[in-house]
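Please check this protein record:
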Amino acid sequence: MTSTTEDRMRADRDAVLVEPGADTQAHGDDEHTAAQLYPGDTGQLPEPARRALVQLLSGPALEQRRHPRLWPALMLHEAVIRSRLADLFLELILDTDRGIAFTRQADTGELETPILLRRSPLTFIDSVLLLYLRQVLVEAELRGEPALVDRDELADQLRLYEGADNTDRAGFEKRINTAIEKAKKNSLLAALKGNADRFEVSASLKLIFGPEEVEQLTAIYTAMAAEPGREGAQ
């Protein structure tokens, strides 16, 4: 075989190996440019998937019924969204039967990692409220109904934990209102349209607080509330 023939064969082989890659890159660049949502956008997810990711990060959950436009995007791009969350040391918790998804810090073992998820300290009265809301949610699910509560109902429930020797009734009522507003701010309570004092409880509570945690906290808080002279709302 002559040198010229060998060179020609080598050139043909290189063309076969290189050109498809070059075409693919160019095609990928065209697709990326077309997918840009704003000037300078380098993201690769389509807009609905990005919005689903933002909802997961802002929390407390992405729910199929509350977010009907985002849920299909989560299902379609689940693997990529899981990967994006893992980059932030977060884990996607997905319950397709209940139509609920949320994020939590990944278990990284001995590896120290930054904490991204915001943490809102809970007072005693905050915790009592969440436990009650979870109970309402469980009972509503057994009946196959939405978990609905009124502001007055919540306030009456929390007043059961007011200390017998409390002399600051106005302050206690303020703490009750603060707890309810905090639950609303964290999207654990959603006001119904046309009635700002009636709420639907987020289904994510049942997953965030497991049965063992509920049992332990209930026992602790019941004992605390029963202590003589103790004001449970602190």
Remarks:
- The two ends are 92 Å apart (CA to CA).
- Strands lie at 62-63, 90-95, 100-105, 148-150, 189-192, 195-201.
